[in-house]
Design brief:
Mean pLDDT: 95
Shape: globular
Strand content: over 45%
């Protein structure tokens, strides 16, 4: 297990806002009574960059951000299971480029919704417990990964409905997996983290033939030779509590626990001993009152900034690629008091959405400075 080396103290960002960008509230929607756990813009298809989806209870809703703070409802999908509670949603697409939504939650079934014809495209069954996060491979957007309470991560082809790989076993997570992410340029690599306090990096390189086979498979999905990946190539103990969000920033990783901060660190692998190595902590981005789990941060398309909410309804917007880190803005509104479970930054960072425990969605837009 990796340990932090002495003499490599991280750079900590100052909580004094730089006023680099000013945002103001332009809309607030009350979606319902149930908490909204996820909000996500569609970065898969440039035609729909201003379209976003939310999940709360057994509902998936699709909206569009229009000029002047307007939010238009485009679609709403209500699951047949009234007890379902969706925790996560991700945009994907099928081979011909039609937009798909992949949602999962309490009951462990992933619903793939074809947003172009408003029908269920597939239901992906396999996880033995609830699903905490779903992410899409940006280079091959019909591949998605899911992180589950059943201690596994699964790779799926949403076009064919096939479960290709299961990341679990001897070297796998020892508790719920809370977050997962594809590397932005290395198509074989993913990172996962969870309630065992670790972040694990996995490689699909030696299993890639199965990924390719999943696109041409004509038999039943259940007959596909799903493979287990039992050993990660790297395990990091950067946090001493649940790790509920991790994202790649190039070859570095941004991760957060319940310690009021996001941490940027570099995995340093040992060449010939998989799983071992050290984590070099580079920077810390403080986030006050962010000490409850299942609060997730988001980034703009080019990873210039990250936005994260806290349990008091405030949002912190950090510039990611400056050292020391720069706080772009701290957003607060007198009526926003409920915990913010997730944010969504638009592709250029000019709009920030937050979804809250009290069933509200807030929209913030940059104010043009003269």
């Amino acid at each position: 297990m990796s340990k932090v080396q002495l003499g490599c103290e991280p750079v900590i960002g100052s909580l004094t806002p730089s006023k680099k960008r000013e945002y103001r509230v332009t809309n607030r929607l009350q979606e319902g009574k149930r908490p909204i756990y996820a909000v996500v813009f569609n970065f898969i298809d440039a035609r729909y960059f201003n379209v976003f989806a939310t999940v709360g209870g057994n509902r998936v809703t699709v909206y569009q951000c229009l000029e002047g703070g307007v939010i238009a409802v485009l679609q709403s999908y209500i699951d047949e299971d009234k007890d379902e509670s969706f925790y996560t949603v991700s945009w994907a697409c099928n081979i011909d480029g039609a937009p798909l939504l992949v949602a999962g939650g309490l009951n462990g079934v992933m619903r793939v919704i074809d947003a172009s014809n408003e029908k269920i495209h597939k239901s992906l069954v396999g996880h033995g417990d609830s699903i905490n996060e779903i992410r899409t491979q940006p280079l091959k957007p019909s591949l998605v990964i899911s992180a589950s309470k059943d201690e596994s991560v699964r790779l799926w082809n949403v076009q064919t409905g096939i479960c290709i790989l299961i990341f679990a076993g001897s070297g796998g997570h020892r508790n719920e997996v809370l977050s997962v992410d594809f590397h932005p340029s290395d198509i074989y690599r993913i990172a996962s983290c969870g309630m065992d306090n670790t972040v694990k990096i996995w490689s699909m390189k030696e299993f890639w033939t199965y990924v390719e086979k999943s696109f041409t498979w004509t038999d039943l999905p259940s007959k596909f030779p799903t493979k287990y990946v039992q050993f990660p190539i790297f395990i990091a103990s950067v946090h001493s509590n649940y790790v509920d969000c991790n994202k790649w920033l190039g070859d570095f990783i941004l991760s957060k626990s319940v310690d009021n901060e996001i941490v940027l660190w570099e995995p340093k692998m040992k060449e010939n001993s998989p799983g071992e190595g050290s984590a070099d902590i580079l920077q810390k981005y403080p986030v006050p009152e962010c000490d409850i789990w299942f609060i997730k941060f988001s980034c703009d398309l080019h990873y210039n900034a990250a936005a994260i909410g806290n349990r008091e309804g405030k949002i912190y917007v950090w510039e990611l690629q400056s050292s020391p880190p720069v706080l772009i803005a701290r957003l607060s509104h007198v009526q926003s008091k409920s915990p913010i479970r997730q944010t969504a930054m638009s592709y250029d960072g000019s709009t920030i959405l937050s979804c809250c425990e009290d069933g509200t969605i807030w929209r913030w837009d940059t104010v043009a400075t003269s």
